[in-house]
Design goal:
This is Endoribonuclease YbeY. The protein is α/β, with parallel strands linked by helices. 43% of the residues lie in helices and 17% in strands.
């Protein structure tokens, strides 16, 4: 598993955010029984930059906490059976499956942690977990989808003992 983290802002966290990202991503991969070695990219930005990305990519001109850009297409969320059919899904040098990109607003991590009364570590882990399930094809556009996705997120965070 390869996790690339790029920082576009000063990182004020009092925890090892790189090691935590690795733990969370690995736990998500294990939870869904993802059958391939994987690559995930994380970009840490401020509210201004995530707003620009959100406006450009989604035509929503406001800051958000996390954006997910899956590289894979799924017929059904969590169904990895067709991934090997497209060689473009794999890094040509490492052979790792290219899951996608995650963009996180560090500003929002800090604000939401304070608003929800938990640590920045918990919020950061939650946003990565949330985004990973998007990279696996899950969504929360309907109440049924939300129920499924959020239950999976909660299970991973509980397994990692990252609580509110």
């Amino acid at each position: 598993m390869t996790v690339h983290i790029e920082e576009e802002v000063e990182i004020p966290f009092d925890f090892d955010y790189k090691q935590l990202a690795d733990r969370v991503i690995e736990a998500c991969i294990d939870y869904v029984n993802f059958p391939f070695e994987a690559e995930v990219n994380i970009l840490l930005v401020d509210d201004k930059m995530i707003q620009e990305i959100n406006a450009k990519q989604r035509n929503i001109d406001k800051a958000t906490d996390v954006l997910s850009f899956p590289m894979l297409d799924y017929e059904q969320a969590g169904d990895f059976s067709k991934i090997e059919e497209n060689s473009d899904n794999f890094h040509p040098e490492t052979g790792e499956c290219l899951l996608g990109d995650i963009v996180i607003s560090v500003d929002k991590v800090l604000k939401q942690a304070q608003n929800y009364g938990h640590s920045a570590k918990r919020e950061y882990a939650f946003l990565i977990t949330h985004s990973m399930f998007h990279l696996f094809g899950y969504d929360h556009m309907t109440s049924k989808e939300e129920e499924i996705m959020f239950a999976k997120q909660a299970s991973v965070l509980k397994m990692l003992q990252i609580n509110r």
